[in-house]
Amino acid sequence: MTAKRFLLIASYANSLINFRWHFMKALQDAGFEVHAAAPDLPAHSEVRQWLEARGIRVHEIPMQRNGLNPLRDLVTLYALFRLMRRLVPTHTMGYTIKPVLYGALAARLARVPRRFCLITGLGYVFSDRPAGLKRRLMRSLVERLYRLAIACCHKVFFQNPDDLALFRERGLLGRTPAVVVNGSGVDTRHYAPVPLPEAPSFVLISRLLGDKGVREYAEAARQIRVEYPQARFQLVGYLDANPDAITDEELQRWIADGRLEYLGRLKDVRPALAASSTFVLPSAYREGVPRTILEALAMGRAIITTDMPGCRETVRDGDNGYLVAARSVPSLVQAIRRMIEQPVLLERMGRRSREIALDKYDVTRVNAVMLKEMGVS
């Protein structure tokens, strides 16, 4: 009998632990030998050692996360093909753009019997910002690659219905079946509810990108603190190499004028969420479903986020938080002001957030759906 062998392909090593560990554990429980491939996984890396200690076979692959460099991407494709020919996996799945594009192509070339991909958001290339010639050309190329890669898959998973609708509208799916799942899920036992702080406190946790709404958050904090100096605004995240990244000069200016408390990059965001009364993510980015919102839901926090793909699914407006317009400081300020002026809302909204996390986003439920749709549960 052929061993069941699953190869999971990522573009960012840490995401294997932060976003996919429970999925890999579910595969192990279903009888799979689980392999994970990603760049930046030398023998001494903490991520590699953590995964190997839990029975995951780890493989380092060459992959440039940002940009489309044809030569480097061909190297990635060939490396994945060689890895698959050596491992002979029965199932593969890539998530995020390059693992989807090149993982699916390599799996088809290597004749892997069952091939899947997971669309975890569309990101910078599909941003709603006015597109210059360079980005229009890049989007056209990425769409062609998506069309080719998805044709190599037996099923494609989306994390929100808007992304699925866009792929259908653009003719990227072909005849490949598609399924929407509720994000990556969240461990509702690990992210447990804690009491609210006494003072109004807001936190944004994300990569420090313009499309994540960081600039709008900083400006809203400046305006609100003129009226309510007791309000606290915290920021958690890291500077990114993305073309849309916040600059260090901007960040230092916001810290210096006192509008934001910058906590840096945290391995464990639970203390930051515990110190907040409201989680804020004013994203204009095409998210899958933001994991940080799911963590805030699970910990019983009211949410302010945008009426954008991936974000809008997490908030029932006026029930567990507020939806605001993307790139709109006035809309964001109005929602924040409501939270400060009506603190009685926070406890009720927090309870509803926790209920939504349990009912819709618990990681065991999400993974059970994925494994059933793959035919391996």
Helix and strand topology:
Blueprint: E1 5-9, H1 13-18, H2 21-29, E2 33-38, H3 46-52, E3 57-60, H4 70-87, E4 91-95, H5 97-109, E5 114-119, H6 133-151, E6 155-158, H7 161-169, E7 178-180, E8 201-205, H8 214-227, E9 232-236, H9 248-256, E10 261-264, H10 270-274, E11 278-281, H11 291-298, E12 302-306, E13 321-324, H12 329-341, H13 344-361, H14 363-374
Parallel strand pairs: 1-2, 1-4, 2-3, 4-5, 5-6, 6-7, 8-9, 8-11, 9-10, 11-12, 12-13
Kindly summarize this structure in a few lines.
By secondary structure, the chain is an alpha/beta fold. The protein has helices spanning 13-18, 21-29, 46-52, 70-87, 97-109, 133-151, 161-169, 214-227, 248-256, 270-274, 291-298, 329-341, 344-361, 363-374, and strands spanning 5-9, 33-38, 57-60, 91-95, 114-119, 155-158, 178-180, 201-205, 232-236, 261-264, 278-281, 302-306, 321-324. The chain contains 14 helices and 13 strands.
Q: What do you see in this structure?
A:
- With 377 residues, the chain is of the alpha/beta class.
- It has 2 domains: 5-185 and 362-374, Glycogen Phosphorylase B (Rossmann fold, 3-Layer(aba) Sandwich); 201-361, Rossmann fold, CATH 3.40.50.2000.
- The protein has helices spanning 13-18, 21-29, 46-52, 70-87, 97-109, 133-151, 161-169, 214-227, 248-256, 270-274, 291-298, 329-341, 344-361, 363-374; strands spanning 5-9, 33-38, 57-60, 91-95, 114-119, 155-158, 178-180, 201-205, 232-236, 261-264, 278-281, 302-306, 321-324.
- The longest helix is centred in the middle third of the chain and has 19 residues, at 133-151.
- The two termini are 18 Å apart.
- 42% of the residues lie in helices and 16% in strands.
- The strands form 2 sheets. Strands 3-2-1-4-5-6-7 form a 7-stranded parallel sheet, with helices on both faces. A 6-stranded parallel sheet has the order 10-9-8-11-12-13, with helices on both faces.
